[in-house]
Amino acid sequence: MSVSDHSARTPLEIGDAIELEVTGIAHGGVSVARHDGRVVFVSDAIPGERVLARVTDAKKKSFARAATVEVLSASPDRREHVWAEAGLDRDPEDRAGGAEFGHIDLDRQRSLKAEVLTDAMSRFGGVELAVEEGDDLADALGDLVEAAPGDDESNGLGYRTRVRLHVDPETGVVGPYAARSRRVIPVESLPLANDGINMIAPLGEPMPGAATVDLVAPAADDPRMLVGMPGEKTPAGAGDSVQELVDDRGFLLRAGGFWQVHREAPAVLFDAVRDAVSGLIEDGRFDPAAGNLDLYGGAGLLAAAMAEAAGPGLKVSTVEADAGATDDAAENLSELVGALALTARVDRHLAELLKASAPVRDRLRRGTVVLDPPRSGAGGGVTAQLAELAPANIVYVACDPVALARDTKSLRESGYELTELRAFDIFPHTHHFETLAVFTRE
Ligand SMILES: C[S@@+](CC[C@H](N)C(=O)[O-])C[C@H]1O[C@@H](n2cnc3c(N)ncnc32)[C@H](O)[C@@H]1O
Questions:
Q1: If I label 336, which of 157, 202, 274, 394 is the partner at 20 to 30 A Cα–Cα?
Q2: 319 alpha-carbon distance from chain centroid
Q3: Alpha carbon of 153 to those of 106, 148, 282, 384: distances in Å?
Q4: Which of the following is catalytic: 210, 353, 399, 403?
Q5: Does residue 1 surpass a pLDDT of 70?
């Protein structure tokens, strides 16, 4: 490993050690620095720090990637990493992935997430998030990303009720992948996971022949271990049903089906969607008898939240690609006589709705669409279909701020106004967070 000279404009190579002034945060859990005019995305650092970093990727002309190996001038927000196996005293290649903010004070994690959101909304969404005059920017940003109940008390640990581990095909060792790699890292504990998962996690027990291990610790059921074999799409036991609880409402779902990973996340998002719909009702903008939709609906969590605000007379269709999840949604929404659970890809279903008769299209125009797409967002195709269907309101739950910002731009260009934005820190010690955006048709 050679130490490169700042003034020499030599190309960077993998393994080079470089000194970096870390100036900002980027989407994806890495900080931003510059070296000889080139942007360097550096992991395990904090904006404001000076670090010695090792170049890990130098293929691109415009930017390189590096990992911190030593902190030369530490941020006051630097903490001992919450996961020993992800800390700086390990070689970057041997650090466990999945806790890339674990070395940062929890409040600062939230203000970094808020910076990522405001930057994404400004650059890709054309929306400047206002900070009240006189507010300290860091405080205002920190307040934008709301903590989940209990996280401040537990330092954001022990929250995950879902964890996927991987099995090294050569040694059978079970563990998380290292960051940005498929290298399995053996670990002694899973500090972000709850007790149920830590109790059954086969850490230190090789599982030769297996490919993945999904650990599931439902709120109202025994923890499960689902072992996936190479080439198999669905791990064994994934179709087994488990019981979840959101406040005191029960949800039944497949053990391997989608469910929010933070113990409090289903309730946080349920409440946020219910409150958004209540706001629309107060503004006289919500029609319970219209063609309301819960797109990417999973097991029906957010349709149930709409119903909590709108009452049992709500008409709503959930649209979900996974047939098992649709069956669960039908069961979970069975008390709502106006609920329909459909198995379909969202784009195909919207294409069908666009061909519907004038009265059906009119009902859809009066409706509210809740959508909660995967990380890639709804995308240009689906936002264009939504713009053509023109529902009165869109309540968008997003796990990727850049995808949300791009979809925001399309929706605003199609005549929707962004009227509310909230963000939730339901993935402490990682760079992930969830955002809720409400759009109304002008
Ligand atoms: C982020 S989850 C949201 C689930 C649900 N709203 C919840 O909160 O539990 C996204 C869901 O979208 C489904 N999905 C992904 N792509 C889809 C598509 N193109 N059409 C329909 N559903 C899709 C996934 O199976 C998954 O259940």
A1: 394
A2: 20
A3: 11, 10, 35, 43
A4: 399
A5: no
Exposure string (b/e) for 168-197, b if CB count within 10 Å is 16 or more? beeeebbbbbbbbeebbbbbeebbbbbebb
- 44 versus 129: the higher-pLDDT residue is 44
**What is the model's pLDDT at position 407?**
98
In 313-392 the beta strands, taken as DSSP E runs, fall at 316-320, 339-343, 368-371
Tell which residue, 268, 321, 272, 275, has the closest CA to residue 299.
321
> What are φ and ψ of residue 441, in 5° steps?
-75, 130
The predicted complex's ipTM stands at 0.99
Q: For residue 260, how far is the Cα from the chain centroid?
A: 9
- Please list the residues that pair with 51 across neighbouring strands: 20, 71
Residue nearest to atom 6 of ligand 1 (CA): 297
- Counting ligand 1 atoms within 8 A of each CB, the residue from 260, 295, 320, 426 with the most, and so the one to mutate, is 320
Asked if pLDDT for residue 347 goes beyond 70, the answer is yes
Q: Which domains does the chain have, with CATH numbers?
A: 17-78 (2.40.50.140), 100-157+262-442 (3.40.50.150), 162-238 (no CATH)
Q: Is the pLDDT of residue 158 over 60?
A: yes
**Distance between alpha carbon 251 and the CA centroid of its chain, in Å?**
21
Instruction: pLDDT band for 137, please (50, 70, 90 cuts).
Output: low
The verdict on whether 72 is a catalytic residue reads no
Cβ-in-10-Å burial (0-12, 13-18, 19+) of 212 comes to middle
Residue 53 has which token pair? 């970093």
In angstroms, what is the span from residue 320 Cα to ligand 1's centroid? 6
Candidate from 258, 264, 349, 369 with most ligand 1 atoms within 8 A of CB, to mutate: 258
Mean pLDDT of 315-342: 97
**Ligand 1 centroid from CA 247, angstroms:** 22
Per DSSP, 229 falls in state: P
Whole-prediction pTM? 0.94
Outline where DSSP puts E strands in 119-254. Answer: 145-147, 162-167, 174-175, 212-216, 224-228, 241-246, 249-254
